[in-house]
Amino acid sequence: MEKENGTFQPKPQKYRMSESSNKLRIAIDLSFSDYMVLADHKNALTQVGYCYSSNRKYCNPLQFYACGVDEKVSEIAKSIGVFGNWDMHVKSGKIDEVFDKSDIVYLCAESENVLEELDDKKVYIIGGLVDHNHHKGLCYGIAQEKGYGHARLPIEENMKLDSRKVLTINHVFDILINFDITKDWKKALLIVMPERKRKLDSKKGDDSQNPKNKELKMDEDDDEQDTSDDEMDQESDEKDTVEKV
């Protein structure tokens, strides 16, 4: 994804969702207008752009959604070139208006449920909230209030983090997409997590130098604005962070 005149200009789509046999659904919940200032809105939408870039490079792309895209979010997205004619499902409705409530699994750090597998009968929700930890537990609270299913990524079971337990929106998306490829959480986490943030559990060993792992990165070098570790590291400490899920 290239940036021109301050807006995102995605390269031509390589793989289209409609042609994919992959029915796994991932949705970004963008219905947090009351919790973010303009700069944080832009940061969240920028991260959605990185997610889109990863998905379009995957030879078997996921079914990718953005929900809660109301007039305010649409205007901000337009100002930075997000969405447009992108090959993704952009919905104005909230997640329970787009999906059956029984299908929803909201990813949130506080959940006692550890995500073990991905089920294409479910839809996995990533909270599109950039809040500098001002609203910790908000997504979990919403899931409980609405009666949604919820789960957390198995990060603690596979590695130790050296720094704060936060992930960007695109970190979470890329972990899911890499798990879909590898069917191995540890490999998916190794591929995506910034190296300086993680410390593998010594009992599990460290195969981060395994060439097979490196091959699974989503062709990052093809595009300066895509989801390379360096790109994701730049702002994860002080800016574009969501709660660890």
Please give a structural write-up.
The protein has a six-stranded parallel β-sheet, sandwiched between helices. The chain has a two-stranded antiparallel sheet with strand order 1-2. It has a single domain (2-243), classed as 3-Layer(aba) Sandwich (Alpha/beta knot). By secondary structure, it is α/β, with parallel strands linked by helices. It has eight helices and twelve strands. Helix 1 (38-57) runs parallel beside helix 5 (169-182) and helix 5 crosses helix 6. A hairpin with a 2-residue loop joins strand 1 and strand 2.
Descriptive key words:
single chain, 245 residues, alpha/beta, Alpha/beta knot, six-stranded parallel beta sheet, two-stranded antiparallel ribbon, 8 helices, 31% helix, disordered C terminus, SAM-dependent MTase TRM10-type domain-containing protein
